[in-house]
Every structure is written in structure tokens, then in C-alpha cells.
Design the sequence.
């Protein structure tokens, strides 16, 4: 085997930034919470909303069809509450570094502001 073949056969492991890993973890948690809501809503609505023999006798809760309230409104409400709590309590800002315009010399920025 030549040296090039050995290099291509080696597994290259990527080293991710901790900020990226934390952001990916946050995205996965939010996505999974919505998947759980989806997995509740679709079967529940199918079983209790579409399999009614007599549509005139649909059970209601507070004037809303029960399958709609418990199959759609409640999972959405719970997912929204969880997402809001998660965003304000768990998610964290990370240092992204300085922007290129922030690294400008103060004297140079005064000249740039003074010129029309």
C-alpha cells in the first residue's frame, strides 16, 4: 500500500466546537418534544375523531369536539409551554466571537463616520 492509500484509509474524526454541540442538543430536544406531540395527536385524532359511527353524537368538552380538544389543542398547548420554558430556562447564549466591524480601530471608525 502506498502512503496515499494509508492516509485515505485512516478515519478522520471531526472535532466539533462546544457551542455547536450545545446548540445541536437544544435543537434535538425541541424537535423531540414536537415529535411526542405529533405521535399523540395523530393516533388520538384518528381513533376518536374519525371512527365515530354517528357524527351527530360527537362528544364535546366546553362546546369543542373532545377529539379536537384532547388530540390537537392540548398537545399544542403542552408543547408550547415546554418550548417556552426550555427556551427561557435551559437555552444559553454562547460567545460567537467578535464581528469584523467590532475589531476596527477606534480612530479609524471616527474617520469613517466623519466622511460622507
Sequence:
Amino acid at each position: 500500500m502506498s502512503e496515499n492509500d494509508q492516509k485515505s484509509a485512516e478515519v478522520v474524526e471531526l472535532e466539533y466546537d462546544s457551542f455547536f454541540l450545545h446548540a445541536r442538543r437544544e435543537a434535538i430536544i425541541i424537535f423531540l418534544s414536537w415529535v411526542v406531540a405529533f405521535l399523540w395527536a395523530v393516533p388520538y385524532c384518528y381513533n376518536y375523531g374519525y371512527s365515530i359511527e354517528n357524527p351527530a353524537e360527537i362528544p364535546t368538552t366546553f362546546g369543542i369536539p373532545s377529539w379536537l380538544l384532547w388530540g390537537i389543542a392540548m398537545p399544542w398547548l403542552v408543547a408550547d409551554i415546554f418550548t417556552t420554558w426550555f427556551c427561557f430556562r435551559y437555552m444559553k447564549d454562547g460567545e460567537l466571537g467578535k464581528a469584523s466591524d467590532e475589531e476596527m480601530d477606534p480612530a479609524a471608525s471616527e474617520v469613517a463616520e466623519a466622511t460622507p
About this structure: The first helix runs from residue 3 to 9.
